[in-house]
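If you are new to this repository, start here. Below is one unmodified record pulled from the training split, so you can see the exact layout before writing a loader.
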Amino acid sequence: MHSVLSIMAPHPISCESVMFAFITAYDATISMHAVNNLREADQLQWMIHRHAASQQGHREMAGAVGLTRR
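And here is the target side for that same chain:
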């Protein structure tokens, strides 16, 4: 493995540069998950809102027709 790395990189690879690359990749992954979670939360909120609006619409229509249970 070391020989492959030394062929790929003309200068010796330091522990710091490996850690930096790992942390940067990890950070990017965390950010990506955060964005996806925000999107999912947004979508869920929209679905809940749409469902509530649809329920309200059904109640209003039923009331107009006189089908509400008293």
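Two things worth knowing about this chain: The chain has a mean pLDDT of 77. The helical segments are 2-8, 15-65.
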